[in-house]
Amino acid sequence: MATQTQTVSASRAGILPVMFAVVLGLGIITLTGHVQAAALHDAAHDVRHATGFPCH
């Protein structure tokens, strides 16, 4: 019986990161689909400057 409990725990532990990635990915796609293009460009531009990555 202990083996069955460990198997269930291992499968649940494996599915949580996958579910998190799916929810995060769908959220990003949904948000970027509804935001104005200029706002996305400005946000990406600011992040590039903040990290020191040249963008011009």
TrEMBL record:
Question: Taxonomically, which superkingdom?
Answer: Bacteria
What InterPro entries does its record include? Answer: CbtB_put
Q: Which UniProt keywords apply?
A: Membrane, Transmembrane, Transmembrane helix
Q: Which residues cross the membrane?
A: 12-31
Q: Name one Pfam family in it.
A: CbtB
Please identify the protein, giving its name as recorded: Cobalt transporter subunit CbtB (Proposed)
**What organism does the UniProt record list as the source?**
Ruegeria denitrificans
User: Which lineage ranks, top first, belong to the organism behind this chain?
Assistant: Bacteria, Pseudomonadati, Pseudomonadota, Alphaproteobacteria, Rhodobacterales
